[in-house]
Structures are given as C-alpha cells and as structure tokens.
C-alpha cells in the first residue's frame, strides 16, 4: 500500500512531524479507515526515502496518541478514532493552511482588507458549499 504522503525537504517542520500530520489527516478524512493496515516501518521508510528511525518515531507518536495500533507479528493498523478527535484534526489542518496563506500575503505586504477580498474571492470561485 502506497500512502499519498508528500514531504518537503525545505520545510522547517521536521520530517517525522510532516508524516505524522499527513497520516492523521488521512485518518480524519476517512481515506484510512479503522482496521486498515499501514506499511511496515521499513517499507514506508523506503517509499518516503527517509530513515527507519524517523518512521519508527512517527508510528510511536501516533500509537501513543491513539491513531494506530501495532500487533506483534501482524502489523500496524488504523485504530478506532472518535469523531471529536477527527473534527479537531480537520479544524487544525484548515486553520494551519489559512494561517500559512495569510503569512504569505503579509510577506507580500497585503493589507488585511486585501487578504479578506482574496479569501472571499476564492470561496466564491470554489462555490460555497
């Protein structure tokens, strides 16, 4: 199973954190469901061209947080994650994306009003749902 995880080598965010956040997003969005098997640590490290230590740390963090579970000799699987936790992840992801966009706009010296106009325009182009 190849996971749709994209890493940024230029990001200030540590690689393990990028992987962790993307796995949480895949679980919260339902793209990974309870009971789905995840790649082994070695397989994911190879796919993402990163170290086994990085993936082990990611899996340990996710297991500690209750997103995945590991069964000795069988593998690593998506755990049951309650809807409240999934909603928190979704809100956090959207907030971070908007925050990043605002940071970019500020770096280009856009005013608050200009940023609001762009935001409103994007929402209208996407069609309010």
Structure explained in plain terms:
There is one protein chain. With 129 residues, this protein is mainly alpha-helical. The chain contains five helices and three strands; from the N terminus they run H-E-H-H-E-E-H-H. The chain has two domains: 15-78, Winged helix-like DNA-binding domain superfamily/Winged helix DNA-binding domain (Arc Repressor Mutant, subunit A, Orthogonal Bundle); 83-126. The chain has helices at 15-28, 41-48, 52-65, 83-107, 112-126, and strands at residues 37-38, 68-71, 75-78. The chain has a three-stranded antiparallel β-sheet. Helix 1 packs across helix 3 and helix 2 (41-48) crosses helix 3. The radius of gyration is 18 Å and the shape is elongated. The model has no long low-confidence stretch (mean pLDDT 94).
Give keywords:
129 residues, mainly alpha, Arc Repressor Mutant, subunit A, 2 domains, three-stranded antiparallel sheet, 5 helices, 3 strands
> Which term fits the overall shape?
elongated
Main sheet overview: 3 strands, antiparallel
The CATH homologous superfamily of the largest domain: Winged helix-like DNA-binding domain superfamily/Winged helix DNA-binding domain
For the biggest β-sheet, the strand order reads 1-3-2
Return the string of H and E elements.
HEHHEEHH
β-strand percent reads: 5-15%
Count of β-strands = 3
